Amino acid sequence: ILMEPNTGKILYEKNANELRPCASITKVMTLLLVMEAIDSGKISLDDQVTASAHAASMGGSDIWLKEGETMSVNNLIKATVIMSANDAAVVLAEHVYGTEDEFVKQMNIRAKQLGMNDTTFKNCNGLDEDGHLTTAHDVALMSAELIKHEKIFDYTLTWMDYVRDGETQLVNTNKLIRSYKGITGLKTGTTSQAGSCISATAKRDNLSLVAVVLGCSTTDERFTSASTLL
Fold first, then answer.
1. Which residues make beta-bridge pairs with 133?
2. Measured in whole angstroms, how far is the alpha carbon of residue 187 from the centre of its chain?
3. What backbone torsions phi and psi does residue 50 show, to the nearest 5 degrees?
4. Quick one: CA dihedral 100, 103, 104, 105, positive or negative?
5. How sure is the predictor about 14, in pLDDT bands with cuts at 50, 70 and 90?
6. What is the pLDDT of residue 200?
7. Around 83, how many Cα atoms within 13 Å sit in the side-chain half-sphere?
């Protein structure tokens, strides 16, 4: 799907309402709730948060948080956005709502508020799980909402950064930030069930666009498809 985020006008779509897993693009909703919690004063970027055993147990893409390890909200967002760290996303979720389960409940409530009527979240990071499904259309809706929080671009446009005083390097999974003029973000995702996915946001002159591609067979295909749509 290709959408103009300010009006919600759909410029192009193909099977945009087909139910699909979306892998780490799930984190768009996670980051939206985190940004809203920061804006409301519930949490702050400087908060130091301790990783639980549950968060430390995540597989897939992560920054290898150990149970009891402490990291700032700012660095956890960096890890979640830039490197798509599953463990960092869970630590943020637990910090905002106490448990991942409660956070996921709030993700689903927020999805309904945004008109994401075909989406069901089962976790906060997008690891494959039965029933964890969305559509390209719904991903575009939550992406449009997230980019209202312009602070997110500080993270989505960072190609490389570090946490743990330089010990852990983060390299952005979104190669478009080095190749596509006007790109502003936003999130990639890859799992065996979801394939290669991307929600790509860009702005040239006064035109903003959100392009969502789900289920590509390769990472190159998702970047090429998103660039073509934009």
1. 120
2. 5
3. -100, 130
4. positive
5. very high
6. 98
7. 23
208 is a catalytic site residue: no
Residue 24 appears among annotated catalytic residues: yes
Alpha helices in the chain, H assignment, sequence order: 27-39, 53-56, 73-82, 86-97, 100-113, 136-146, 152-156, 176-179, 219-229
Q: Is 192 a catalytic residue?
A: no
Alpha-carbon 101 to chain mean position: 18
DSSP per-residue letters across 10-21: EEE-SSTT--B-
Give the bridge partners for 4, in sequence order: 9
User: Coil, helix or strand for 213?
Assistant: strand
CA distance 106 to 137: 20
The answer to whether residue 44 scores a pLDDT higher than 90 is yes
Give me the catalytic one of 24, 52, 61, 225: 24
* Cis amide bond preceding 186, omega within 30: yes
Q: Active-site residue among 52, 61, 84, 208?
A: 84
* Chain segment 143-172, per-residue pLDDT in tens: 999 999 999 999 999 999 999 999 999 999
Tokens encoding 52: 């639980």
Q: Is residue 60 within 8 Å of residue 171, measured between CB atoms?
A: no
Phi, psi angles (nearest 5°) of residue 154: -60, -30
Specify the amino acid at residue 63: I
Q: How far, in Å, CA of 62 to CA of 76, rounded?
A: 11
